[in-house]
From TrEMBL, chains A, B:
Protein name: MarR family transcriptional regulator
Superkingdom per UniProt: Bacteria
Species assigned in the record: Streptomyces werraensis
Keywords: DNA-binding, Transcription, Transcription regulation
InterPro entries: HTH-GbsR_regulator, HTH_MarR-typ, WH-like_DNA-bd_sf, WH_DNA-bd_sf
DNA sequence: CGCTTCCTTCAGAAGATTGTGAAGTTAAGG
DNA sequence: CCTTAACTTCACAATCTTCTGAAGGAAGCG
């Protein structure tokens, strides 16, 4: 058998990984196209791809890329940058920020807290149900306070493992 | 205006809360019926409701309740118990375990890690993309190690706030 | 200054999800 | 042992989501 050229081989290997990991993210609640686009970026060497490259690699229409990128930038998992001397747009994974985004359900948790506070107020803090809600609320408040410290520890650990060169971002 | 009886008033207040909080959970990725059933249980004084009660309170068919409960017990957010001298089944929120379930995306994260390890292996740990994946993987491994300690601190904090009587479970 | 290129937006079709009704299953009680 | 009560399962129908194709708009380049 003829050894396939590096790039062809890579294309298939990458595709396998993209589809596999994206499927997991979908299962976890991410919409399909954003998941695929995101993983494709993650698996690209530069961490940057153009709309056209994504469109071709994932076999989807430019419109689908556009929608996916809009979603991803809303949740801060990807940023868009205009390539200077061109009308091409480039999309980039936030090297080490993206998992913060995944962790940062902050906005979500904040809304949960609002709903729970309302619940405690309207059911009454002296009822069994009210107490249960209050405890749940306290849990989220606790987590919200813990997460920043944990991320701080992560940065230290990251430094330790990979050195500070941050070749990525 | 005649003051409505306590229970009627509660019914509406509870319903407001149930729908509001459930909507947030849905937005966060939980299917609608499971979310509504879950919150209804959370807002019930005993933390326990029968299928019939859920069906009536949420205005959904017994079939929908059944499906929702199946989902919830799979993700360990609710447990089912047979009421001794009756064919009624009772569904219960795990007093203080349910947020552990929400936190315990463990299974999910585990699968992500598998996919990422594969990715590192096939892209090569010496490529930029491979390094990015490796870092992501390291992050999840880190989190997985941190969560148990955090939950331990939460239990201590909970004790401190609410005392150990655990009137709930 | 117009042309070209690339991206976006919009409307619609294909597909997936989800909740209902009806039949089936299990178990209590007479 | 038969009846009745309660939950579950199954197949279908309604709904919602999602992706595509086509048209529209900005920005470089000749």
């Amino acid at each position: 058998m003829v050894e396939p050229s590096g790039t062809e081989r890579d294309a298939e290997v990458i595709s396998r990984f993209v589809e596999h990991f994206a499927a997991q993210l979908v299962e976890a609640g991410l919409p399909r196209m954003p998941a695929r686009v995101f993983v494709a970026l993650l698996a690209s060497d530069a961490g940057v791809l153009t709309s056209a490259e994504l469109s071709e690699q994932l076999k989807i229409s430019p419109a689908a890329v556009s929608g996916a990128v809009r979603y991803l930038s809303q949740v801060r998992m990807v940023s868009r940058e205009r390539e200077p001397g061109s009308r091409r747009e480039r999309y980039r994974v936030h090297g080490d920020q993206w998992y913060e985004a995944l962790t940062n359900r902050e906005a979500v948790i904040r809304r949960w807290e609002v709903a729970l506070r309302e619940g405690v107020a309207s059911l009454g803090g002296d009822t069994p149900a009210g107490r249960r809600l209050a405890e749940t609320l306290a849990f989220f408040e606790f987590v919200e306070k813990e997460v920043p410290a944990m991320m701080e520890r992560w940065r230290a650990r990251r430094e330790e493992l990979f050195g500070g060169d941050g070749a990525d971002a």
